[in-house]
Amino acid sequence: MEQQEGSKVILQLNQTNEADSEIDLINVFSLMGKKKRLIAYLLILAILLGTAAGFLYSGYEHISGKGSFVRAVVTFQFEGIEQGLDPNGAAFDVTLMKSPYVIQSALEEMGYSENYIEHVRENIVIEGVVPEDAVEKMTVIKTMAEKDATQYEKILDVSYFPSQYIVYLYDDGTFAPNELTQVLNNVLTSYRQYFLDTYANAEVLTVTSNLLSGDDYDYGESVDLVKTQIQLMLSYVTKLMNDAPDFRSSRTGLSFEDIVTSLKFVQSVDIARLSSYVESQSLTKDKDRQIEYYNYRIREASNKISELQTQLETVTNTINSYEKDPVVVVSSSDTTLEYEEKNEYYDTLVSKKISLNKEIAEENTNLNEFYLLLNTLQEATTYNSQDEFDYADSLLTRLDTTISSWVELIGETTDEYFSTTLYSNAVKTAIPPQYYIDGGIVHIAKNIMIPVAALILIVLIWWFFNGVQEEIIMMRMKSSRDMKRKGAEKILF
Predict the structure, then answer these.
(1) What is the 3-state secondary structure (H, E, C) of the chain?
(2) How far is CA 70 from CA 129, 227, 431, in A?
(3) What is the pLDDT of residues 288-300, one digit of tens each?
């Protein structure tokens, strides 16, 4: 307890076995002042040692790759990312950004071999940025939890899926700083291309020329192949036409509607010409093999129809036995309205029934066509001439060229659509890669200031307590002299 007595500042110490002692703080500071030179040397030493320790730690961070790094911010903008889904509806995996394929493509741009892939991959760290709505929810729950601790459990129930990520590439000394920045920039560019290739890929349409010509397939099989191929292309482009009716490529000058119209022309003219010629001439390289092929397609179509009819029967019975929700009648003095409650399950069953009937009709058409082709082939008595083969081959070659050309045009058009329109901002580098030297000057200063401040504090504490200790020693010596003096006075009197 501090007291003021005259001009003295007193610190009173209560001791158990001795009388109360009082320490004069002015004397303490006076004793401390006598060691100013020593303390000055100790403070200088503390500053030097702390600075050295800070530099050593910064060096350790640099060598271990935990201090210097390149950092960039990447944002994702596409349908489903808020639910953690990729464009196809599957779980979105951002770690593919540091997949070996992506890194290899990035390094090849700089002329580095695949031996550096693991060096880069091990030093890439991806951190998701918590969305604002999730932060708000957790803040509200935390505020509520101050009154009710059980509310903390609700924080665990707050789910969020980042749409923004911070990407770090730490410096382990393998690359120079400017190269490290270029590496991360190339990785992000490579990943963006990988994203487009994965979710905007038209390579599924590619067909090799040997499927349409040569000795691999008979003519009837080739007709089926080109029909399937053109239908696949039509389905693909029709969906894009419905999604983007106003898009027109600046590279090809085509809209998706233009492509659909052209493909239908190829289907109705070029393929029809080949198909009609093959059928009318019963054209085949191996009659027995072609008969076996048609028999197989007939069996396949028959089995498919049986399967679809079984499904249709099940759906029909479910519909007939299903009780729909009642009709609600709302009447007034002027009108009477009837509302039938919407039933999604019932509507799904009806839609399924319509779809099955359509599939059965299509399979029946195919079945009848294969029966017709089989009968025509079996009834043929003449052999095909070389001129007929040559003409059919010329039609196939022309179709091969036409389809390959349209596959290339579709690929170029869709690539522009995905990269400039649909996925133009799907993967965007919001903040380009920047190099931070050991966390920057501020970070290095922090590494130095912490040990320096700690050592200075230790010196100051020691200085103060050393002064207190010397004051206590002097008080005890004074007390001892006083007691001896009082004892001598008693002896005299």
Answers:
(1) CEEEECCEEEEEECCCCCCCEEEEHHHHHHHHHCCHHHHHHHHHHHHHHHHHHHHHHHHHHHHHCCCCEEEEEEEECCCCHHHCECCCCCECCHHHHHCHHHHHHHHHHHCCCHHHHHHHHHCEEEEECCCHHHHHHHHHHHHHHCCCHHHHHHHHHCCCCCCEEEEEEECCCCCCHHHHHHHHHHHHHHHHHHHHHHHCCCHHHCCCHHHCCCCCCCHHHHHHHHHHHHHHHHHHHHHHHHHCCCCECCCCCCEHHHHHHHHHHHHHHHHHHHHHHHHHCCCCCCHHHHHHHHHHHHHHHHHHHHHHHHHHHHHHHHHHHCCCCCEEEEECCCCEEEEECCCHHHHHHHHHHHHHHHHHHHHHHHHHHHHHHHHHHHHCCCCCCHHHHHHHHHHHHHHHHHHHHHHHHHHHHHHHHHHHHHCCCCEEEEEEEEEEHHHCHHHHHHHHHHHHHHHHHHHHHHHHHHHHHHHHHHHHHHHHHHHHHHHHHHHHC
(2) 17, 53, 11
(3) 888 888 888 899 9
Q: Tell whether 181 and 287 lie within a shared domain.
A: no
Per the structure, the complete domain to which residue 13 belongs is given by 2-64+441-492
Neighbours of 95 (CB within 10 A): 8
CA pair distance 388, 469, nearest whole angstrom: 119
Q: Is the pLDDT of residue 464 over 60?
A: yes
The total domain count for the chain is 3
Together in a domain, 308 and 172? no
Per-residue model confidence (pLDDT) at position 8: 54
Q: Answer yes or no: pTM beyond 0.70.
A: no
Indicate whether 395 and 312 sit together in one domain.
yes
- Same domain flag for 461 and 390: no
Digit-coded pLDDT (tens) for 328-358? 555 555 555 555 555 777 788 888 889 899 9
CA distances from 46 to 59, 443, 458 (A): 20, 20, 9
Distance between CA atoms of residues 74 and 128, nearest Å: 10
Mean pLDDT score across all residues of the chain: 80
For residue 461, is it within any domain? yes
In this structure, the answer to whether residues 294 and 405 fall within a common structural domain is: yes
